[in-house]
Amino acid sequence: MKITIEINGKTETFAGNWENRTLLEAFQELGITQVHAPCGGIGTCKKCLVNVNGENVLSCQTMCEDGMMVVLEAEQKAVIAETGDCYLYPADQTNRLVAACDIGTTTVVCHLLDGKTGVRLGTVSAPNAQRSFGADVISRIQAAKGSGLRKMQFAIMNQINQMIGELMQKAKQVGKVDLLAVAGNTVMEHLFCGLSPESIGVVPFEPLSKFGTMMQGSRIGINRCNYVYMIPAVAGYVGGDIVADLIAAKMHTMTSRTLLLDIGTNGEMVLGTVGDYVCCATAAGPAFEGAEITMGMPAATGAISEVWAKNEQICVSVIGGGKPTGICGSGLIDILAVCIQLGLMDETGLLLSASEVSEPWKRYVGEDENGVCICLTDEVRVTQADVRKIQLAKAPIAAGIQILLQEKDWKIKDIDQVILAGGFGSYMRKESAAEIGLIPKELVKCTHSVGNAAGEGAVSAALASEARTELEQLQKQMRYVELSTHEAFSDIFIREMSFTNSYMRSE
After folding, report:
1. Within the chain, what is the greatest distance between any pair of CA atoms?
2. Has domain 2-72 been given CATH number 3.10.20.740?
3. 2Fe-2S ferredoxin-type domain: which residues (predicted)?
């Protein structure tokens, strides 16, 4: 069977055995990563649209046919947090090239470094090549069954090898990188190493490995690197990315009582002070990344990234400054905060009809086939279903914070600082997050973002043996709390579905 595919104006014909296979499966096998499938290919998110013989279809629901002509839309450039305002360990001063990689569920960042001086020779980033297998770790776990594991490992291996090759070429370097340090959540680290993450998806959520290991690059398919160091994970859903966050933010040296939040498809958090940490993870889902939202999209050109009210108008900021085509996670947090402030939504998350809101804001309230919606522009709207998705994303994170406070026997007022790590935390307005109850309002003043701390922690791990030793010690010092079996979690989760800031009630 032959299929012709046009990508970014370039046409190529591929041959394969795709009888009784969907187009999405063919894309996955071919390593074509431009097609998004946040729902994992079950047909619910409607994001994997492609043009086949002049008609727009869902690639996950369309069977391959011989002679098909498929056109993929040009991919918009994503805004990715590549670096962070973090501490870097001094280099071991070895005469070699090293590299560091942060493999997120949504994005991948790779750095090339001079192992002697610690100088960064280059950085590249891109959306994770596995995204056609689903937007969150749960969908990736499900996709790992059968041949999916091999396909996903090939996708990320190929991506990392290409990134390192690009960095070497730009830096005019030859030969091999001596050491690659990799940070990622536990599922991403499993997929990178070709280990099945299926055990993480079922009780008791135990991973096959917690890493903290050095291995030959050729053993797992990283042919451009002599050795690969996998940053240690704590549990099935608290990975090496969070341990890397801690050394990058220097949380392991702080005597102040600190809460670290890494908010993404898997919301991970750590609470503690030097040498004594409690941590947990919540299934926030992909809503904060713009996935499974009616007009949601990644933080890329055309995305509404900020929303605010001024002079009786709802104003928006668009990435790239052009016409908005959708809304990303930071914009979603903002619009919900604005809806609360303007009385467009009640505390249960119900969007009010135009007859129930004050005059200046009536023009922003519309209706679609599913009920009331908020119209930000003529093209972009936020629906009632979108609000519910954000509630389901923010409630477990808010509940997780309260569970950790209970575990430490602390109150909100006892926390000295909050550190926001990760790409989403870099762009999320903390005031909006507090307005919807994602973080306590009392902590807004002591909350700050450090950017891509996991990537910076990986840089330290690549440069310094001291950093690798510290990472392995931190892994042992972090006590994991499993929220799904915690007796208080369900009640707190239900309470946190409300948009009332319930932290006040819990004091």
Report:
1. 71
2. yes
3. 1-76
